[in-house]
Amino acid sequence: MNNDFLSLIEESKALNSSIFSLIRLQLLSSIASVGKDGVSYRELKAVLQVSDGALYTNLKFLEETMYVTSKKINLEGKELESYQITPEGQQAWEHINDWLKKLVECGVKE
Amino acid sequence: MRLDKVIACLKALNFKPKVENFEHRLIIQKAVYLLQLKGVKTGFGYHLYVRGPYSKELTDQVYASKKKFENLESPASLSNAESRDIQEFKELFGEFKPSTLEIAATYSFFAFGEKQDALTALKNVKRMKSFYSEAQIAVGVSKAKEFLFKPNEKELAGLKEELRPWQEASAKSMRG
Predict the structure, then answer these.
(1) What is the interface pTM, i.e. ipTM, of the complex?
(2) Do B49 and A36 touch (CB under 8 A)?
(3) Is the pTM above the cut of 0.90?
(4) Fewer CB atoms < 10 Å away: N or C end of chain B?
(5) Rg (CA), chain A
(6) Separation of alpha carbons B130 and B113, rounded Å
(7) What span, in angstroms and rounded, lies between the C-alpha atoms of B129 and A47?
């Protein structure tokens, strides 16, 4: 069990720790879940219930990290900002997801 | 193949999809989900995501078979019951308005998929789709109910009881 935990700590060094904030994990998970279809700014705001400031800043961060990209889409005559996961973002999310699962399993064994 | 069944449904709906069009992909996602709840099984698994009920697998397959999909090439056929359900869908949602389908599918996920009571389901729709107006939500929810609501025996008895005074008054007036 100790070995499990220690190897998890070692493994965590390969993760991008700047993603480990609740809102960034929520954003990455939400955007990754709809793959190629992407998700609009207003949908993220409605579901995550965060301020425009927090949403904008963290989306900008994920774009700068090249984990998400944005583009304009048209829905019923309205132009909306839509966010898609990049292959790098998908890989990072899967990596974090696997690591979090292992961390939880390690806790369950205790 | 499951995608063949989806194509057969779109053909019956006279909907010619353009895969690169975001609105079209949204319409397909929600139409397939609502039809599945009605009984037209295509076998795609749906989960609740940020956009409401959504099947990532369906989108992936649509992209993978883009040409076949856009040309509506499918060997699959529909049963009479499925054709009836699709006809009913067409009458209610035939204008293929993305917002109405999005609201109807999200309400249906909560009310008919998760079996939540009507008020809780409505509250959840309003939370997830807060960017839509009250009127848009009312239209979507009412169409979802019209399409999927099947009254149980107790509700049927209640409805009959509610209608009884009207029926009696009508019979009385006919007798003169």
Answers:
(1) 0.80
(2) no
(3) no
(4) C
(5) 16
(6) 21
(7) 8
